Amino acid sequence: MVMKQLKEFTIQFVGLKLGKHLFEYDVDQAFFEHFGYEDFNASSIKVKVELEKKTTLMELHFAIKGTVNVNCDLTNEPYDQKLSNKFDLVVKFGSEYNDEEPDLLILPHGDYEFGIEQYIYELIVLAVPSKLIHPGVKDGTLKSDILDKLEELSPKENKTKSREEEIDPRWNNLKKLL
Is residue 162 one of the residues assigned to a domain? Predict the structure, then answer.
């Protein structure tokens, strides 16, 4: 499926002079809706892209910083998760378009622009931790029915010790073989 490019994330490099150029973007929830990504309740992310145009290639340095509102994996309570990430991309010119390498983009000779929205999208999504834990869970300040239920259902130490004592003694002989 080919996605329609987001115009504001298209860099026209033909008119740019050699040297460094800075592009800044504010990424909000509408950006992720374009990709059909629904894991964030809300988002507020600043993206800085520094493009260094050289005679035969271009170097892009992406940096993101901001927050996304997500639901905690344990309590399902929404909270703001801070994000920051960096990524470097080299753009070269060749006979045909090729983006198979993660940090290298080859554009056909004669191209005058390219879209960076996919790189920004992936950079943000990959910055999100794999396990989302509300900061109130870590420091004990979050009060939640789900946390109370998890505490109630968690195994207690004294139950574990009594189970060890109930182990069939024949298993102990097998342990000796190890």
Answer: no
